[in-house]
Design goal:
433 residues, mainly beta, Porin, 14-stranded antiparallel beta barrel, two-stranded antiparallel sheet, 5 helices, 9% helix, 54% strand, elongated
Length: 433
């Protein structure tokens, strides 16, 4: 029976891993939609981590669960709005709506010290879209980054105070970028269409975690996520080429499209989170997390062409390649609280701050990120001793971003003020059997 349960759960997690909704978030392209209970507390959960989502937040916290097997299944719905102001003209991006599922399984063994867990989450993502004739068309018209992480972890309680956990991560990612390309060598020619598509099937990483319980009121958590090196393999497409560019890329006139195999290397950055959980009373909990993320590993985006290019092709395709990113490290701060009004009903609230790693000179229309302040509300219901349901809402307020002389050419200008607002709701169901 137990083997059958593990088999079914493995299949479910695998299916969720291959679901590919678009997603977007704060702090460059990191996401904060991994568990409704945690988000209701401002996503400050590393120091508490006492439900199955500890698989991601702090696997050492799995040792706090009561003996048994737990399944947690949830999803988030996100809406993103962006606008650009320049010279008295407002340009709004296309409104995007996203769905992000997640899944956790945990098994706390009878010896009261050992626990294992599995999970499928989306830690990173991006989804922006501007009109084909907008100011952003030569930077980005549509960009999607889709990421899924499959996690397996084990935790062990060494003493009454100290637990340690270790996990293995596997990433699957897909990227799609579209924009317009000017064709200045043919006067009056329409823009060409550019598209770059690629995927990384599986890239490995790991996580280390610790939980230290000082006493019944105070405990600390620490989690480290390793960097994960991904390599997107796919194709670059150009359509609508004018005669001169047909000749340069194809060696003749008559074929107005061109494609070639490409690869792009990137890194999902390492991070460290320190969490503290304080319980003033049996019904009241206060949490705080601080996180450092090594975004500085992203210094440039370099498209490598797998096919041999001739001189003309190289001159056209390598214009602006590699592209400077020059990200810097960033900090995040999360605060949250929970109060059990009744034995079966909890209220939650929280706040978190993200520092953007993107400098003004390298901001892009696909990701006009800025420092953000987010506020969360949540509630939880314990319908039975074995079944709980949690919901949360978050409003993400991005600080308006003023850009001056960032990307100005004869055909394109990204200067102006960017405003972004995101909101999302989510729900989780957890069952112990």
């Amino acid at each position: 029976m137990k083997k059958g349960i593990y088999c079914v759960l493995g299949i479910l997690a695998g299916l969720l891993c291959f679901i590919s909704p678009a997603r977007a978030g704060s702090g460059a392209y990191s996401l904060e939609m991994l568990d409704a209970e945690a988000v209701g507390k401002g996503d400050a959960f590393v120091g508490e981590a006492d439900n199955p989502s500890a698989v991601y937040y702090n696997s050492a916290g799995l040792t706090q669960l009561n003996e048994g097997r737990y399944v947690s299944l949830g999803a988030s719905a996100l809406r993103l709005n962006q606008s650009h102001y320049a010279s008295g003209v407002e340009t709004k991006s296309h409104e995007r709506n996203f769905a992000v599922p997640y899944f956790y399984f945990a098994d706390k063994f009878k010896n009261d010290r050992l626990a294992v867990g599995f999970g499928t989450v989306s830690r990173f993502g991006l989804g922006t879209e501007w009109a084909n004739n907008s100011f952003a068309r030569y930077s980005s018209t549509k960009s999607d980054l889709i990421n899924s992480t499959f996690i397996s972890t084990v935790a062990y309680r060494f003493t009454d105070k100290l637990s340690l956990g270790v996990g293995f991560d596997v990433e699957r990612a897909f990227a799609n970028q579209k924009k317009k390309v000017a064709q200045p060598l043919d006067v009056g020619a329409d823009d060409a269409n550019f598209q770059l598509k690629g995927k990384d099937d599986f890239s490995p990483g790991y996580q280390l975690s610790a939980m230290y319980k000082v006493n019944k009121r105070h405990q600390f958590g620490l989690t480290y996520h390793s960097p994960i090196h991904v390599r997107y393999r796919g194709k670059l497409y150009l359509d609508g080429l004018s005669p001169t560019y047909q000749f340069l890329l194809n060696g003749g006139v008559g074929v107005n499209h061109f494609e070639t195999d490409v690869s792009v290397k990137s890194v999902l950055p390492q991070s460290v989170v320190l969490g503290y959980s304080f319980r003033p009373t049996e019904k009241w909990m206060v949490n705080a997390d601080i996180q450092w993320t090594d975004w500085s590993v992203l210094q440039q985006k370099h498209v490598v062409y797998q096919d041999q290019l001739n001189g003309n092709q190289s001159a056209v395709l390598n214009s602006g390649n590699p592209e400077s990113l020059d990200y810097h490290d960033a900090l995040s701060l999360s605060l949250g609280t929970e109060y059990w009004v009744l034995d079966w009903w909890a209220l939650r609230a929280g706040y978190y701050f993200h520092q953007t790693p993107i400098s003004e000179k390298n901001i892009q229309a696909c990701l006009p990120d800025s420092n953000s302040h987010s506020f969360t509300l949540g509630t939880g219901f314990k319908f039975t001793p074995n079944f709980t349901f949690d919901v949360a809402y978050s409003a993400m307020l991005f600080v308006p971003r003023n850009v001056d002389s960032n990307f100005s050419t004869a055909t394109s200008d990204l200067d102006g003020e960017y405003k972004t607002f995101a909101q999302y709701g989510m729900g989780s169901m957890t069952y112990k059997f």
